[in-house]
Design brief:
It contains 7 helices and 5 strands, in the order βαααβββαβααα. The protein is α+β, with helices and mostly antiparallel strands and 225 residues long. Strand 4 (83-88), helix 4 (97-112) and strand 5 (118-119) form a beta-alpha-beta unit. It starts with 11 loop residues before the first strand and ends in a 22-residue tail after the last helix.
Length: 225
């Protein structure tokens, strides 16, 4: 069995209920992003959680935890399935909740027969980085989030001879399948595994916020506390 949680007095944990808890988790994720990135942060969307739940063999009842504070509000959430992730609300940090969830994620991975566990941490989160290094984690790779102002984009250059460039057609399943194949082939040399179409689509074309012709909205703000 996964390692029991040792949480501060008054805090409780249970598995995620995808229908009942989704909005609470989105608010928690958005609050964490704003704490790290300030005005440059983007809001969380349903696709972020849907992509986790779409992982092959993923079982929310066994592979997730949602921690509630004494006042009943969400304080943290975590999941573990070859990769893992833990987010602690800024108002509840410094109480070793993250450390407790790290132990649970590792125990759950062992229970699943996983030989190596990976999670992503932002460079702007020195506490999280320090905690992981303290418990034996080592850098595996780095990625950058690049941005460009959309108000005055330069004109694209001509396509190479024999190549046609056109907009993605969201309603055409052939476009989605072709995009999946191109992306998985392009990153095959360094990815640990290929995603099947259903899982990939949850990350991309099946996300509620997927809009090929428009930038993503940043209008939502996190709630206090």
């Amino acid at each position: 069995m996964a390692q029991p949680l040792v949480l501060p007095a008054g805090y409780t944990a249970r598995a995620l209920d995808p229908e009942r808890d989704l909005l609470d988790v989105l608010d928690l994720l958005t609050t964490c992003e704003w704490a790290l990135h300030g005005a440059g942060a983007t809001e969380a969307d349903r696709g972020e959680v849907a992509a986790v739940l779409a992982r092959p063999g993923f079982d929310p009842a066994a592979d997730t935890l949602l921690v509630h504070a004494p006042d009943g509000r969400p304080a943290a959430w975590a999941w573990s399935d070859r990769r893992c992730e833990c987010r602690v609300h800024p108002a509840h940090r410094g109480r070793r909740i993250g450390t407790a969830l790290l132990g649970w994620m590792e125990s759950r991975a062992v229970e699943q027969g996983v030989g190596k566990l990976v999670q992503v941490v932002a460079d702007l989160d020195p506490v999280g980085l320090t905690m992981l290094r303290t418990y034996g984690y080592r850098p595996k790779g780095a990625s950058w989030l690049l941005e460009i102002p959309l108000a005055d984009l330069p004109e694209p250059g001509p396509a190479p001879a024999g190549i046609a460039v056109r907009p993605f057609r969201p309603g055409d399943p052939r476009d989605a399948r072709a995009a999946h194949r191109v992306v998985e082939d392009a990153f095959a040399d360094w990815k640990a595994r290929r995603m099947d179409f259903a899982e990939w689509a949850q990350h991309t074309v099946h996300r509620e916020t997927f809009t090929p012709s428009a930038p993503r909205s940043r209008s939502r703000r996190p709630t206090a506390g």
